[in-house]
Amino acid sequence: MKIAIMAITRGGRDLAARLAAQLPNATLLTGKGVSANLAHNWQSFGGFICVMATGIVVRSIAPLLVDKRTDPCVVVVDEKGHHAISLLSGHLGGGNELALQVASILGGEPVITTASDTLGLVALDVWARGQHLVASRADMTKGSGLLVNKGELLVYAECEVASLPPGLVQTRSRDEADLIISNKTCYPDRLVLCPQNLVVGTGCNRGTPVQEFSQAMAELFRDLGLNVSAVRNLASIDQKNDEAGLLGFAEQGEWPLDFFNKEAINQVSNVDVSPAAMQAVGAIGVAEPCALLSAMNKQPEIRVNLCSSVVQENIKLISRKRKWQNITMAVAERPFTLSAQGLAR
Which of 62, 104, 155, 215 is the 20 to 30 Å CA partner of 180? Predict the structure, then answer.
């Protein structure tokens, strides 16, 4: 994270320089007034350390605030370095961690006021992001509030659970669960966090418009009872890497695209062989083998993958190829394991 450090007084500038020397990716901002400096650099840094009075910072950042998911974090430090206050974006923006880091450097006291931290509970939104779990903003806020008020949430997970962080307790009963981890849509009135562990393989005819891709996926996921939010990425054959409709569809959904060449595709077994695909592109298929191959990748990349491995047994093809007039789609599911810390596997 790029960090900007600002100060007003001589003593504050000395402390700011000390911090800048010990924090990676830190830049000292000088020259302009506090408000002007913050406004000019607000979108350029992930965090701001302000060595000055809290009131000055509050008045200066007030016009700049948009959303806790996108605002940079702000830490306020007194001139003597006694306290490092996490003022803004403590969880998602990393303000709490930065305050702890600053306090450690200065030998001061971190001041953290977010409820979950003061109660020794997990920050639900931060944990969910690290686990690649998604939910609506309203549901995430509801879940965080419920955790703070109850002190714990009972979690029913449709996946493997290695460990859970403080405040989350696994239950085998869906009915008693406060929180459900699932990529399905069968819990309309429940609090659900959705893992992004589905890969959609797709083939298409040349010139297929974006709208046809959207309609096909909506129909497929509705019939399967799957949450579109669970889509991690799309996958196709490398011969489609310039297909405008496919690229536009991926951009519309903010999904990465994984491309595979026919040599990699033709090594995949247990898929429906398509004579039409063999004749058109020299591959045994597109939708099914590409979905399976891409699901093997921990992180999708926009590239031609020269994978020579066979598909792992724990990768599931949960929807075989479905065909529309101009499109084929298949869905593969990557195994998902929850853990208390770090990224889900």
Answer: 215
d(CA 104, CA 120): 20
The CATH label, of 2.60.40, 3.10.450, 3.30.460, 3.40.1390, for the domain at 124-195 is 3.40.1390
- CA neighbours closer than 13 Å in the CB half-sphere of residue 213: 26
Alpha carbon distances (Å) from 109 to 31, 68, 84, 85, 168? 29, 24, 6, 9, 28
Per DSSP, what are the bridge partners of residue 154? 169
Domain boundaries along the sequence of the chain: 3-113, 124-195, 198-333
- What does pTM read for this prediction? 0.75
pLDDT tens, residue order, the chain (345 aa): 999 999 999 999 999 999 999 999 999 998 889 999 999 999 999 999 999 999 999 999 999 999 888 999 999 999 999 999 999 988 888 898 999 999 999 999 999 888 777 788 888 988 998 999 999 888 988 999 999 999 999 999 999 999 999 999 999 999 999 999 999 999 988 999 999 999 999 999 999 999 999 999 999 999 999 999 999 999 999 999 999 999 999 999 999 999 999 999 999 988 888 888 888 888 899 999 999 999 987 766 544 444 444 556 688 999 999 999 999 999 999 999 999 875 444
CA 38 → CA 22, 55, 65, 253, 308, distances in Å? 22, 14, 11, 33, 51
- The CATH number of the structural domain formed by 198-333 is 3.30.420.180
Q: Is the dihedral of CA 52, 55, 59, 65 positive or negative?
A: positive
Whether the Cβ atoms of residue 5 and residue 26 lie closer than 8 Å to each other: yes
Top CATH class, 3-113: alpha beta
Q: Which residue has the tokens 């403080």?
A: 166
Between CA 4 and CA 28 the distance in angstroms is 6
